[in-house]
Design a protein that fits this description.
45% of the residues lie in helices and 14% in strands. By secondary structure, the chain is an alpha+beta fold. Strands 1-2-3-4-6-5 form a six-stranded antiparallel sheet. The longest helix has 26 residues, at 28-53.
Length: 226
């Protein structure tokens, strides 16, 4: 099944040029037909595969409060006051995500910059500390999750890192580069043709399976079921 089309990217490119409330409301029907509704169909269709791979994660197709991130930007503390995001963000979140900070799977749809990823982006300090300690105490399992040939072939660990070893951790630890990380995320680019083609659902399913070892490990670090 095809979800997104050339009209999806056409709308997002136009929104980037006309990032104004008046323009958006004048073209809201296009947003619903070519961006929001296809995204929600994709989320709904991914529910069985996600449930099979990660039973405690949710693909929620509700228009508000589910897997689809709001198109509106939070501009309260931002220098950039443009009101709308120019991409589509979908997250597949842990069932306890409202109770405790938890890892997630993420799909980013933007012309020329589509990707899929998973993990934690800038976790809060207590969560970051727990994950660093878990990696320190369980290095072999971390290496198995992130250094396998299959994983490294498709995914790259990303995010900023500290210059020095974090407080309380030895600078000569075998995984010091990972302990310095401020985020624990892995990402893979997606071709625009894949996102606009009939195999997008299959591609996302395959990446969820490929990223599962990382997310499983991060869940274990926080005593969360995977």
């Amino acid at each position: 099944m095809t979800y997104f089309t050339d009209k999806t990217f056409r709308f997002l490119r136009a929104l980037a040029r006309h990032n104004e409330r008046e323009w958006f409301h004048a073209h809201k029907a296009d947003w619903l037909a070519h961006v929001r509704d296809p995204a929600l169909r994709l989320v709904a269709d991914l529910q069985p595969a996600l449930r099979e791979v990660a039973p405690h994660f949710r693909a929620d197709p509700r228009p508000v409060g589910g897997s689809l991130f709001r198109i509106q930007r939070d501009t309260r503390f931002a220098n950039d006051k443009t009101p709308y995001k120019t991409h589509v963000g979908l997250r597949f979140f842990h069932e306890r995500g409202r109770e405790i900070e938890a890892p997630s799977f993420y799909l980013h749809v933007q012309p020329g910059n589509c990707f899929i990823g998973a993990g934690f982006w800038h976790p809060e300090p207590p969560t970051l500390r727990r994950l660093r300690q878990f990696i320190h105490d369980n290095p072999a399992a971390w290496t198995a999750a992130t250094r396998s040939t299959a994983f490294k072939r498709k995914y790259e660990l990303g995010g900023e890192s500290l210059v020095r070893a974090p407080a309380g951790f030895p600078a000569d630890h075998a995984l010091i580069d990972d302990l310095k990380r401020k985020s624990f995320v892995a990402m893979a680019p997606l071709e625009d043709a894949t996102v606009l083609g009939p195999r997008l659902g299959q591609a996302v399913e395959a990446h969820v399976r490929g990223l599962a070892p990382l997310v499983d490990y991060l869940c274990a670090g926080l005593d969360l079921e995977f």
